[in-house]
Specification:
The protein is mainly α. It has helices at 32-41, 48-66, 69-81, 86-108, 115-129, 133-139, 153-173, 177-193, and strands at 13-18, 24-29. The chain has eight helices and two strands; from the N terminus they run E-E-H-H-H-H-H-H-H-H.
């Protein structure tokens, strides 16, 4: 691989991990993207099925860029394959739309994606469930899984109601920035929870 100019150092990092002998040793590790890049560079017939799968996934994503409705169809099929009911899937897709409307409203009112969204989402979560998002994930024993994908239909509906209410609140009160938004949300929900 080195002769062909492939340097795994740019893809892999080293972490100290416990070896089979129980000692900590520097071990090459890579994230998912790095693993896929390594697979692509392996000149072996055994790697071909993985390369074909990566090519198929890439083609599907390009098709979805051309026709975004395919993304929704893929999500629907994925949820069906995971065993979710059609009723739950319909609620989940509606919840995605409600969340998108909320984040659009936040963006229009000066809230930045990422940490600021998380702060406000925690307030909404505490209002309807009594728990922050992290506490709720811990309650459901989730690590990396999506919390909403692990909610019941009732939980999805309650979360949607809270997010739709927050969207209306944002549009009616017109707060600007995360601090003002936080105060308005906290005041609105705090008065109703206590």
């Amino acid at each position: 691989m080195k002769e062909e100019g492939n340097e795994l150092l740019t893809i892999c990092k080293q972490l100290n991990l416990k070896a089979t002998d129980g000692k900590m040793r520097a071990t090459d590790v890579a994230d998912i993207q790095g693993v896929f890049r390594i697979i692509q560079s392996i000149p072996s017939p055994k790697a071909e099925p993985f390369k074909m799968w990566l090519a198929e996934v890439g083609k599907e994503r390009v098709d979805e860029i051309i026709d975004p409705e395919l993304t929704i169809d893929r999500a629907l099929q994925t949820y069906l394959q995971k065993g979710y009911s059609r009723e739950w899937i319909n609620q989940r897709l509606q919840a995605i739309q409600v969340r998108k409307e909320l984040t659009d409203a936040w963006q229009d009112h000066g809230v930045k994606e990422g940490r600021e969204y998380a702060i406000l989402t925690n307030e909404i979560s505490k209002a309807w469930s009594g728990m922050t998002t992290r506490q709720y994930k811990d309650f459901k024993n989730l690590k990396k899984e999506n919390l909403r994908d692990n909610m019941s239909t009732l939980e999805l509906v309650l979360n949607m109601l809270a997010e739709a209410t927050t969207t209306e609140l944002t549009q009616a009160l017109n707060p600007q920035g995360v601090e003002t938004m936080f105060q308005k949300i906290n005041s609105f929900y705090g008065n109703r929870v206590n």
